[in-house]
Amino acid sequence: MELNPEDAKLITLARSSRARTSAQHGAAVRDQDGRTYTAATVVLPSLRFDALDLAVAMAVSSGAKNIEAAALVAERHPEPIVDGTAVRDVSGRGINVYIADLEGKVIRVGVT
User: Fold this and answer.
1) What is the pLDDT of residue 1?
2) With CB atoms 3.0 to 4.6 Å apart as the test, which of 7, 30, 32, 36 could cross-link to 66 if both were Cys?
3) Tell me, what's the pLDDT at 53?
4) 27 in helix, strand or coil?
């Protein structure tokens, strides 16, 4: 799958975020102004944040009003289940969520 450079950048950032922490997932989102936000899955005894939800929360807490696109990087097996709820909460339907493996190959594209 051929991605535009801005969407490919999201996958690169999500891969880096996951690799830095050896987390289950890494994610990145791009807001309406082209700013990007990254996150990795956080698992603590008292809380758990999915990487994609956390990236959206970071964008919103920084003033983002809309998410243009999102990416999630994870191992293929088992393939991550992504519903894009947080992305949909901010931006509604029709937003691409790219799901990629650890090498950055897009496995599928979900649409909120």
Assistant:
1) 75
2) 32
3) 93
4) strand
CB 11 within 8 A of CB 29: no
Tell me phi and psi for residue 43, to 5 degrees.
Answer: -130, 110
Stretches where the chain sits below pLDDT 70 are: 77-83
What's the helix, strand, coil split of the chain in %, to 5?
30, 35, 35
Instruction: Tell me the one-letter amino acid at 45.
Output: P
- Selection from 94, 100, 93 nearest residue 71 by Cα: 100
Is the model's pTM score more than 0.70? yes
How many of the other CB atoms lie within 10 Å of CB of 20?
11
Cross-strand partners of 96: 69, 111
